[in-house]
């Protein structure tokens, strides 16, 4: 198993992602949709899709808070974050099945290096000054 540790900004919450093969079990993507832009306060969101069973809180479970809201397209979205510092951890919803989307920046530096971005979504909404991920394609309908 390859452990990919991470946590919130203040350190109250620590987690580990356990994958036997990060290359095939994790997919990191940049998303240019309006929902991700608004939530992150940035011009994109970046998350790593993993099986829910691979994610485990190791410290600070009592600090985890959940926000639930419709995502703008009729899908209910659940986001988990730290109740102390407000740092985002992950999101999931009906669209995710048995997966969760871990916010990439919450992973420790060496963990992020094992799950680099493989693609982009909602590319038609990419800010014009932002370059594409080299060698990656965006689904044609997004």
TrEMBL record:
Keyword Zinc on this protein? Answer: yes
- The CENP-V/GFA domain, residue ranges: 4-130
Task: List, alphabetically, the Pfam families matched.
Answer: GFA
Q: Which domain of life is it from?
A: Eukaryota
GO molecular function terms noted in the UniProt entry: carbon-sulfur lyase activity; metal ion binding
Recorded hits in InterPro entries, A to Z, give: CENP-V/GFA (IPR006913), Mss4-like_sf (IPR011057)
Key word Kinase present in the record? Answer: no
* Keyword terms of this UniProt record: Lyase, Metal-binding, Zinc
What family does the entry list?
Belongs to the Gfa family.
Name this protein carries in UniProt: CENP-V/GFA domain-containing protein
Q: Which organism is it from?
A: Xylaria grammica
């Amino acid at each position: 198993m390859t452990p990919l540790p991470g946590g919130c900004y203040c350190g109250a919450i620590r987690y580990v992602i356990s994958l036997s093969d990060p290359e095939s079990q994790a997919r990191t993507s940049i998303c240019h949709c309006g929902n991700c832009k608004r939530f992150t306060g940035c011009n994109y969101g970046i998350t790593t899709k993993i099986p829910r069973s691979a994610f485990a809180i190791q410290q600070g479970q009592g600090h985890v808070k959940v926000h639930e809201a419709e995502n703008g397209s009729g899908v209910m979205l659940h986001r988990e974050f730290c109740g102390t510092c407000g740092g985002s951890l992950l999101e999931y919803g009906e669209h995710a099945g048995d997966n969760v989307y871990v916010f990439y920046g919450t992973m420790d530096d060496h963990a992020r290096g094992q799950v680099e971005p493989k693609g982009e979504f909602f590319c038609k909404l990419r800010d014009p000054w932002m370059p594409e991920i080299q060698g990656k394609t965006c689904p044609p309908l997004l």
